[in-house]
C-alpha cells in the first residue's frame, strides 16, 4: 500500500521563524525524489506555505505514474512508456496496468475486455439525453454532462464499498465513455447514432461508432487502429496534472466515481491543458493560411503576443517522451495512408526553428504531447472539436486509477488549500441609503 512507498528518512529540514527552529521531516520517494513534509507546519508555526499553481507542492503520495521532467522520462507503474509502445501494449492493457498496478495476465485481460464489451451500450433513456443538446453543443460539454448523468442510471454504484463495485463502475466508465464521445460527435453532425459492435476491439469499436453508417460499415485499417491505441495509451496518465488533481480533489469529498471523472473532463477542457491539441491544429492552419510564414509566428510568440501551442510543459524541461513517440507514429500513419500533410511539414519546421532559438531553449520550451497528436487525429479524420474528447477517453484510466488509489488509501482528508488574504480588513457595514457609487467621494 501507499504508506510503504512513503519513506521518512533520518534527514530533516530546519526552518527558523522569529528565532525559533522547527524540524521538518524529509520524505524520499521510490525514484529518490525528496520532499519536505509540512503536514504539521501550520499547527506548529502558525504559518502556511505560498505556492500559486502548486509547482512546488506534493499533494499526495502515489504509486501510479512517475515523471522525470529533466530527463524526459514517463513510467506507468514502473514501465517506461517506450517499452509499452515497443511491445504493442494496448490501451486496454495499459488501463488495467494503471488501475491495478501490474500487467494483466492473458485471462485477466480477456476478462476485462469482456467487461468492457458487456458495458458498451448506454441505457436507452440516457440516449435521450443527447436529444436535449443543441446540435452545435461542444462535445466536451456533452461528454462531461452525460458521464455525470451516468450516476443516475447506476445508483448502486454511487457509494462504492467493495472492490467488486469499484471494478464494475470502472469498467462501465471506460467502456461507455467511448460510446458517449462518438454519439456526441454524431449528434453534432445530425447523424444517426451507431450502436457498438461487440465483435470489435475497443479502438475499432470507437471508430465504427464515429464513422459507420446504417448502410455502410466503416472498417479502419490495422495501422489506424494501432495509431489510435497508441494515442490513448500515451494519454492514459500523467501524475498530478490539473485534471487528475481535480479528480482527486473531488474524490476527497467522497464524491462518486462518475461525478469525479466528469469534473476531470471539465478541467481538461481548457486550452492550457487538454484543449491545447485543438489549439495546435488551429495554429498550424493559421500559419498555413497566412502563407506558411513560420518565422514571423515565432517572433510573435517571442514578443508574447501569442503562445506557441503545443510547446512548453510545467514538468518536462526537456523533450516530452510522448511527443517523440507520437512524432514517429504520425509519420508512419501518413506513410501507410500514402498521404502527405502540409500541416505536418509546417509543424516540423516550427519545431525545428523554435528549438534553434535562444528564447525557447533558455526557457526549456520543447514540443509537448499535443504538438503531434493533432496530426494523428487529423489523419484519422477526427474533427478538431473532438480533439480534447479524444484526450479525455485516453485519460480516463488514469483518472480512475487515481480515484481508486485515493479511495483505497483510507485517508479521509478533504482537500482544502489555504490562502493569503489581500482584501479589505474588517470594516463597518454601510446601510443602503449611505452607499456611494464607485468614484463618488461624496464631496
Ligand atoms: N510559447 C511561448 N512562450 C512560452 C510558452 C509557449 N508555449 N510557454 C511558456 N512560455 C514562456 C512564458 O511566457 C514565460 O516567459 P518569461 O519567463 O519570459 O515570462 C516562460 O516561458 C515560462 O512560462 P510559464 O507560463 O511560467 O510556464 P508554465 O510551466 O507555468 O506553463 C504551460 C506551462 C501552461 C504548458 C505553458 O508552457 C503553455 O501555455 N504552453 C502552451 C499550451 C500547451 O501546449 N499546453 C499543453 C500542456 S501539456 C498538457 O496539458 C497535456
Short description:
The chain is mainly alpha-helical and 443 residues long.
Description:
With 443 residues, the chain is mainly alpha-helical. It contains 19 helices and six strands. The strands form two sheets. The chain has a three-stranded antiparallel beta sheet with strand order 1-2-3. It has a three-stranded antiparallel beta sheet with strand order 4-5-6. The chain is globular and about 75 Å long. Mean pLDDT is 93; it is low at 1-5. The structure holds acetyl coenzyme *A (ACO).
Pick out the low-confidence regions: 1-5
Derived structural class: mainly alpha
The hetero molecules present are: acetyl coenzyme *A
Mean pLDDT across the residues is: 93
In spatial order, strands of the major sheet run 1-2-3
**How is the biggest beta sheet arranged?**
3 strands, antiparallel
Large-scale geometry = globular
Q: Topology of this protein?
A:
Layout: H1 2-5, E1 7-17, E2 20-28, E3 34-36, H2 41-45, E4 65-68, E5 73-76, E6 79-80, H3 81-86, H4 91-100, H5 106-118, H6 124-129, H7 139-153, H8 163-189, H9 202-211, H10 222-234, H11 242-251, H12 257-269, H13 276-289, H14 294-302, H15 321-337, H16 342-355, H17 358-362, H18 369-379, H19 387-409
The site of acetyl coenzyme *A (ACO) has 18 residues, from helix 18.
Amino acid at each position: 500500500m501507499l504508506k510503504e512507498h512513503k519513506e521518512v528518512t533520518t534527514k530533516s529540514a530546519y526552518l527558523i521563524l522569529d528565532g525559533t527552529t522547527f524540524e521538518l521531516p524529509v520524505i524520499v520517494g521510490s525514484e529518490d525524489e525528496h520532499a519536505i513534509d509540512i503536514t504539521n507546519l501550520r499547527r506548529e508555526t502558525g504559518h502556511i506555505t505560498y505556492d500559486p499553481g502548486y509547482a512546488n507542492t506534493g499533494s499526495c503520495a502515489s504509486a501510479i505514474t512517475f515523471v522525470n521532467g529533466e530527463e524526459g522520462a514517463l513510467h506507468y507503474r514502473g514501465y517506461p512508456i517506450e517499452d509499452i509502445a515497443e511491445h504493442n501494449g494496448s490501451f486496454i492493457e495499459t488501463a488495467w496496468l494503471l488501475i491495478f498496478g501490474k500487467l494483466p495476465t492473458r485471462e485477466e485481460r480477456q476478462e476485462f475486455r469482456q467487461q468492457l464489451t458487456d458495458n458498451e451500450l448506454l441505457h436507452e433513456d440516457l440516449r435521450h439525453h443527447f436529444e436535449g443538446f443543441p446540435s452545435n453543443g461542444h462535445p466536451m460539454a456533452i461528454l462531461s454532462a452525460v458521464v455525470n448523468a451516468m450516476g443516475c442510471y447506476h445508483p448502486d454504484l454511487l457509494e462504492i464499498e467493495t472492490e467488486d463495485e469499484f471494478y464494475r463502475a470502472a469498467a462501465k466508465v471506460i467502456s461507455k465513455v467511448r460510446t458517449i464521445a462518438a454519439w456526441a460527435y454524431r449528434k453534432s453532425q445530425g447523424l444517426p447514432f451507431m450502436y457498438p459492435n461487440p465483435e470489435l476491439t475497443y479502438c475499432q469499436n470507437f471508430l465504427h461508432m464515429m464513422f459507420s453508417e446504417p448502410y455502410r460499415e466503416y472498417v479502419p485499417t490495422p495501422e489506424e487502429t494501432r495509431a489510435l491505441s497508441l494515442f490513448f495509451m500515451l494519454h492514459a496518465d500523467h501524475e498530478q496534472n490539473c485534471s487528475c488533481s481535480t479528480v482527486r480533489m473531488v474524490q476527497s469529498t467522497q464524491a462518486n466515481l462518475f461525478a469525479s471523472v466528469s469534473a476531470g473532463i471539465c478541467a481538461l477542457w481548457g486550452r492550457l491543458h487538454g484543449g491545447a491539441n485543438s489549439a495546435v491544429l488551429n495554429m498550424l492552419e493559421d500559419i498555413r493560411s497566412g502563407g506558411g510564414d513560420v518565422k514571423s509566428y515565432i517572433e510573435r510568440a517571442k514578443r508574447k503576443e501569442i503562445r506557441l501551442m503545443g510547446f512548453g510543459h510545467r514538468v518536462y524541461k526537456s523533450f516530452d517522451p510522448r511527443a517523440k513517440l507520437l512524432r514517429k507514429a504520425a509519420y508512419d500513419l501518413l506513410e501507410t495512408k500514402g498521404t502527405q500533410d502540409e500541416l505536418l511539414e509546417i509543424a516540423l519546421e516550427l519545431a525545428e526553428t523554435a528549438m534553434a532559438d535562444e528564447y525557447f531553449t533558455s526557457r526549456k520550451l520543447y514540443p509537448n504531447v499535443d504538438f503531434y497528436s493533432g496530426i494523428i487525429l487529423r489523419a484519422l479524420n477526427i474533427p478538431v472539436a473532438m480533439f480534447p474528447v479524444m484526450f479525455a477517453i485516453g485519460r480516463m484510466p488514469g483518472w480512475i486509477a487515481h480515484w481508486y488509489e485515493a479511495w483505497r488509501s483510507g485517508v479521509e482528508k478533504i482537500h482544502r488549500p489555504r490562502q493569503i488574504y489581500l482584501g479589505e480588513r474588517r470594516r463597518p457595514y454601510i446601510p443602503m441609503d449611505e452607499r456611494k457609487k464607485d468614484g463618488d467621494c461624496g464631496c
